[in-house]
Amino acid sequence: MSNAFIIDGKAFAAQLRQRVAAAVESFIALTARKPGLAVVLVGEDPASQVYVGSKKKATVEAGMNSFEHRLPASVSQDELIALVETLNADAAVDGILVQLPLPPHMDDKAVIAAIDPGKDVDGFHVVNAGRLAVGEEAFVPCTPLGCLMLLKDHMGDLSGKNAVVIGRSNIVGKPMAQLLLAENCTVTIAHSRTQDLPDVVRRADIVVAAVGRAEMVTGDWLKPGAVVIDVGINRLEPEAGQSKGRLVGDVAFDDALRHAGAITPVPGGVGPMTIACLLRNTLVAAHRRAGVAAPEGI
Ligand SMILES: NC(=O)C1=CN([C@@H]2O[C@H](COP(=O)(O)OP(=O)(O)OC[C@H]3O[C@@H](n4cnc5c(N)ncnc54)[C@H](OP(=O)(O)O)[C@@H]3O)[C@@H](O)[C@H]2O)C=CC1
Ligand SMILES: Nc1nc(=O)c2c([nH]1)NC[C@@H]1CN(c3ccc(C(=O)N[C@@H](CCC(=O)O)C(=O)O)cc3)C=[N+]21
User: Fold this and answer.
1) What order do you get walking across the sheet with 206-209 strand by strand?
2) CA 171 / ligand 2 centre spacing (Å)
3) Whether 111 contacts 77, CB under 8 Å
4) How far apart are alpha carbons 50 and 56 in whole angstroms?
5) Cβ contacts of residue 199 below 8 Å, gap of 6+?
6) Is 15 one of the annotated active-site residues of the chain?
7) Dihedral angle at the C-alpha atoms of 226, 173, 298, 92, nearest 10 degrees?
8) Catalytic residue at 122?
9) Which residues are CB-contacts of 162 (< 8 A; sequence separation ≥ 6)?
10) How far apart are CA 100 and CA 190, in angstroms?
11) What residue stretches are annotated with the Tetrahydrofolate dehydrogenase/cyclohydrolase catalytic domain (predicted)?
């Protein structure tokens, strides 16, 4: 089999960000204010600091206000919730993102529950998860939304396709499965207790890997021609003489290339789409709060 098509998430994300930036200009002309995204980072986790930095840069580049709140890891859950409530009440804030994971003394669920569902641009609040599950308009988590955009762009109609989602987290696997189901796929959700995972994956026309295990999915697991979306972000140990290890996905990329029909790379695949979809959700939140129609097809 010839080499798979490489789905360029970075390029798709750049185009989406341009559409968002154009829509931001129209929003400002209409309402005389900028959409605003508040990002809350608790603690000093270096990977989280990098993500928050790139979110801020992308937000400002799209013409939106970025409000960054960095709190020490020692902050209490009540103090964090008090900050979230201040942001809920702040008219300049359209979207609120509390960077996960939170320090161990905090309960993610309680903090997410404090976010106004209308400002929950991560789509993590139970109200948004419930709306997605029953097919009502919802804020959809950015990573699965970005994966779905790439799939539809590459494949067109997804009706009747066999889709296997590996991973069942509330932020990636479960909402990804809901989105694929809404597109009329036949969806299987695999996880750490799944038996014969390679055989399950071999039946899939679409594979979404969201596990967090470096290069777990190998080429021989794939049905020839399958479309593979690799959500995993795993940092390998540095090689001799290097300070940083390589970033790899949950799929053994070079091996999968020889079996898949198409595949997203890591980096440059799903990651940039997550950030672009965060801007997209913030734009939509701003329109809803202002009571004006959001542009079509964003
Ligand atoms: N590109 C991006 O924008 C983003 C990337 N990520 C990355 O995606 C990956 C997944 O993230 P997230 O969903 O938050 O991770 P979680 O750790 O919350 O979930 C991992 C899932 O994988 C399952 N799993 C673990 N081991 C196996 C195994 N051996 N076989 C089958 N399933 C297994 C777990 O099963 P069980 O439920 O049974 O424990 C769980 O459902 C990570 O690498 C993360 O860094 C995450 C968010 C955004
Ligand atoms: N409340 C919350 N919302 C999130 O959306 C959220 C979160 N918490 N916690 C952490 C995860 C992870 N995540 C990523 C975003 C962008 C890239 C990304 O842009 N990756 C680049 C590479 C980046 C690099 O080089 O390190 C790429 O794949 O090309 C990756 C991962 C969002 N997350």
Assistant:
1) 5-6, 262-263, 227-230, 206-209, 162-166, 186-190
2) 12
3) yes
4) 10
5) none
6) no
7) -160
8) yes
9) 185, 186, 188, 203, 204, 205, 206
10) 23
11) 7-122
Centre of ligand 1 to C-alpha 73, Å, is: 24
Which residues make beta-bridge pairs with 65?
A: 36
- Tally of residues, the chain: 298
How far apart are the C-alpha atoms of 103 and 249, rounded to whole Å?
A: 25
Is 99 catalytic? The answer is yes
Q: Is 234 in the pocket of ligand 1 (CB under 6 A)?
A: yes
Q: CATH: 3.30.40.10, 3.10.25.10, 3.30.70.270, 3.40.50.10860. Which one for 31-116?
A: 3.40.50.10860
Return the C-alpha torsion angle 230, 235, 237, 240, nearest 10.
Answer: 90
| ipTM tops 0.95 | yes
Which string of DSSP letters, residue by residue, matches 191-205? -TT-SSHHHHHHT-S
Take atom 16 of ligand 2 and give the residue whose Cα is closest: 271
Question: CA-based Rg of the chain, rounded to a whole angstrom?
Answer: 19
When pLDDT is cut at 50, 70 and 90, the band that residue 1 belongs to is low
**Superfamily of domain covering 142-271:** NAD(P)-binding Rossmann-like Domain (3.40.50.720)
Predicted confidence (pLDDT) per residue in 168-196, tens digit: 999 999 999 999 999 999 999 999 999 99
Domain with CATH 3.40.50.10860 in the chain: 31-116
Q: Answer positive or negative: Cα dihedral of 195, 201, 206, 212.
A: positive
Residue range(s) occupied by CATH 3.40.50.720 in the chain: 142-271
- Which of 272, 296, 270, 294 lies closest to 282 in space, CA to CA? 294
When pLDDT is cut at 50, 70 and 90, the band that residue 297 belongs to is: confident
Distance CA 237, CA 240 (A): 9
